[in-house]
Structures are given as C-alpha cells and as structure tokens.
Amino acid sequence: MTSGIDYSGWDHIYVSDDEDVTSPYVDTPSLFRMRHRARLEKMAEFQQRGEDLEINFAECKRLLEEAQGQLKELEEGRNVGEEDEEREAELKKVQAEVRKLKKNEKTFEKMIEEHRREEKKLPWNVDTISKEGFSKSVLNVKPVPKEETVQERVEKHKTFAEKYMKEIKHFGMLRRWDDSQKYLSDNPHLVCEETANCLVVICIDFEIDEKHALMEQVAHQTIVIQFILDLARKLEVDPRGCFRQFFSRIKTADKPYLDMFDHELELLKERVRSCAQIRMESAMKELEEEERQKRLGPGGLDPVEVYESLPKEIQRSFDEKNIQMLHEAIDKLDIEEGKYYLRRCIDSGLWVPESGEADDKEGEEEEDEED
Hints:
This protein is mainly alpha-helical.
C-alpha cells in the first residue's frame, strides 16, 4: 500500500553540510564554524541581491510613471496646436525614454522571477528549515488605569462637550426606550461618563431658565446613562458593550427596579434644583459686587453703606439736599466724630464739596478744639 502523505518536500533537506568532511589535522569545531559562516555569507549575498532587484524595479516603475506623465503633457500640448521644434524634440526624447524604461521594467520583472525560482530550489539547512513563530509572551492581565488629574478631566470634558454637544442634546430629548437604544447604537461614543456630566449641566441650565419640564426630561436621560455606567462597572465591561442589556431589562423590569430608577431620578432633580439655586445666588452676589464697585467713591467707600451708618439728622440733610442742615448736624457732634463722618461722606462720594470747603470745615473744627 502506498502512503497518502507526500514526502517529496523533504528530498532536498541539507542539514549537515558543515560536518560532512572532517580532517584529523584540522580543529573540527573551527572547521564547522568556518563553513557555517561561509554559508551564512552566501545566503546573505543572495538575499541582498533579491532586495537590490526589488529596489531597482520600484525605482524603474517610478521613473516610468514620471516619464509617462511628462509624455502625456507634451502630447496634449501638441493636440492643442502648440507645435515647435523644441517641443517636438523634447517629445521624441521622452518617447524614447519611455520605451527604454518599459524595456528595463520587463527585464527587472524577469530577473526577479528568476531569483524567486532560484530561491525555491535552494536546499533547506539548519538555518532555514524552521522559523521562529513569535518571540514574546502575552499575559492576560487587566492594565491598571492611570488616574487622571483634575485639570486633565476638565480638559477631557471640555473637548468632548465641544465635539458632541449637538448629539448629547438630541439624546436628552428622547422619550421612548427604543428611540434611546437605537440612538446609542448609532452613536456608541456617547455611552460614557462625559455624556452624563454634560446632561447634568444642561439640566442645571434649564432649571435656571425656569424650564422645569425640559429639566426633568433631560434628568431622566441622565439617569439612563448613569444606570448603564453602573451596570458596566458591575460586569467589569466597557459601557458600550452592555447598554443593550440595560434597555432589555428596563423594558421588562419589575416594580422594585423601576422604583429604584424613579428614586434616583428624584434625587437627581433635587440636586439639580439645589445647584441651580446656588448658581443663581452666586450670580446675584457677583452682580451686587459689580454694582458696588461701580458705586465706590473717590476714597473707595460705598455710598450706600456710608449713608446707612450716618446719624439720622445727617441722613435727613442728604435726603433734602440741604447743605446748611448738614453743617448744623455735624456741628452738633463731637469734633472727632464730626470729622469722621465728614471724611466718610467725601470718600464715598455722598458729598462733593467745593474746592477747599472740606479743609476749611475741618480747620474750623480744629480751631474750636484748641479754644
């Protein structure tokens, strides 16, 4: 019976050429090393010749493409009617160059084919009978994620929001489970923490603008993303690979699961209302501070604060815009106290005396004090 396996591929294995002939007068290991080195040099020379042929063939093809492009331009110019002796001479020169390059290209193709045939006929040896499949080990260990800094997280959120804000707003307005699932299937990059953060910001903006219904709608979609992220953390998978599981569960969920979803939604709404209130109060404080800075008098005092700190008689003089009453009210006060209130009125801009008036008034009070 004949064997069904073809062993002809092993007919030309050449594995002991370095050890075929030995001599008692020559050091055998040295002889083996010398023959092995000579064979390696011969193999390297053969491989280098093949690489040179490939390089020359590629260069020939490049030159041929350039020459053909130049020939096409010259022929188009002749068709338009631009004919002169120099152009015709150049055209003939390029045509000859193209013919030469085509001939060289065919020659290189034949030489490369011949080199490949010779390579197939080479006998195997200890260096070519097998090749290393791979030389690295891969351990199935989950990499430890690098903890991001606050600045990196801020920049990441900003970049994501600028790039995908239109898609995020569209998702925030979806009401049906099927619509949300389909949209995330078409835009899986939205299944991430940054989308949830952007949705929360949109909720706060709607609450500040007193668009409460829109805020509640976007808050619902925020909880959808948050539940998907929580599920991914529990399963230890990428959120983009498990959002369909969430929708399959929520559409057929029992009452406890739906109650948990609604509870988280109500908590989010309360947090959004609280954040919106804090932002509005902060904005009011900033506005009041800006107005206060605008009101400051030449001495850096707030006229409203100074007015509220003045005695009643002095306040009444400012209300009636009566300078004589102001002088009389100050005269009734202790000298130092009068100087104190007078200077505060001037520094806050409540009273803008004529040039030298304030100094004269203070001088008179000092004279009275000396007397």
